[in-house]
Amino acid sequence: MTRRKFLAASAAVANRARAWQARGQPGRPPNVLLLMSDQHRRDAMGAAGDRIARTPNLDALTAGGVRFSSAYCANPVCVPARASLLTGLYTHRHGAFNNEIPWPYEHPTVAHYFGRAGYLTALIGKMHFVDAQTHGFDYHLDFNDWFQLLGPKTRLYADELGRPNSGSGQPQIDDLQRELGDPWRGEREMDGREGSVAVGRVSRIPEEYQFETFVARESVRFLNRYGARQPFFLIASFLKPHDPFMPAERFARMFRPEDMRLPDTWGKMDLNTAPAEVRSLIEHNGPTPELRDPDAARRRIAFYYGSLMQMDDALGKVVTALRDLNLDRNTVVIYTSDHGEMLGDHGLWQKFQFYEGSCGVPLLVRAPALMPADAVCNMPVSHVQVLPTLAELCGVPIPGDLDGKSFAGQLRSPSATHPTTIYSEYALRTRGAKYMIRRGDMKYTFRTHDRAELFDLRADPREMRNLALEGPFQGRVEEMKGALFAWYRPPELDM
Asked: What is the mean pLDDT of the chain?
């Protein structure tokens, strides 16, 4: 940073500090703590009414702020979703179309904007950048640092994954194994799984060495070392409840498979009217074929909830440290996940869909003195709005051409809603490309080479009645399709 830029950034921070002081806060701009998980479905949380989930720390965070009941990812898969969250751009604009494409360096991230405003920016945990870029973060610890901590115990994690999987961090960067191949081939202790992803089991990695523990411990270390020195923007990003569904023993034993209920929609999808893609996935789950058996499905659900509880426990340690260091009164805390998990809804697993279980994400925000506590906002919002919201709360300048607009107004008045339109995209630049638009209670999915879907989420929250197949709703179908194409016309139509 040049001296001129440094002085300009210092002046900007000083101005924001005076504005924050005027609100009765300590004499510097607010910090930001972004807590993140992977594959956490929106309704799997005690505060959201789930009687199975044990998420006391997320529930406490909800009680201190605002929970968004209709938040959506911009793309139901890791890399594109995270790129949208950090850039405020939809997938077709930022260009990271799938999990193999590195984030284009041309698009600044939240770290660039906050760093230029004088914040110390830190990323601890998973972000799936795909290559060696750090995208503006000053302080960065990820899977490769965890593997150094594991040492020989890295073998245990290789066994859990069973194959290379960049979504789970091994390898974190695909290119590292491009020429020489998988270094663990022939070295793993295989467990008899039928597909590439195990149903789940208790992890053999000691809890004190697990990734969630690593992220929590290093985040607490960062807060102790740097929290009081200057405004910070810290992302603590956990892997769980993403597969492998292999929680530590004390969390796994909290959930018995025989106590798990299969979803109400399990086995009830009319395959004759389902899109071909959905029908194929229901009839054959390639990654985990065992899930055709209801008992195996219950085991997987139990291990999912154990993984979720372990993530919540680790997250709680970071929030506790924030409070113990007296940083909580001047810190905006936000929690979300990159996408959801179908968890057996309609007989589907993982993500990749625009059904609520997959594209719906949890979103909790606590900003002291700026909003009511224990509030719920039902207005639909998108991940692309997170960056503009945090920038507004902290007085950080950002460009005016981002796709997302701030929802800070909903934080101050959660019950005051207004018409909004939400979009999501998946598998761009392929024949399987599909796009989603939600307006009000209506949600429309356009598949470029497959059957469309239209759901009334108020009347049919489980998404079992596809109105796009019914004559009386063809006008609404054309209206939603027209609005979607006005936003972005799928180029895959010409493929």
From this structure: 94
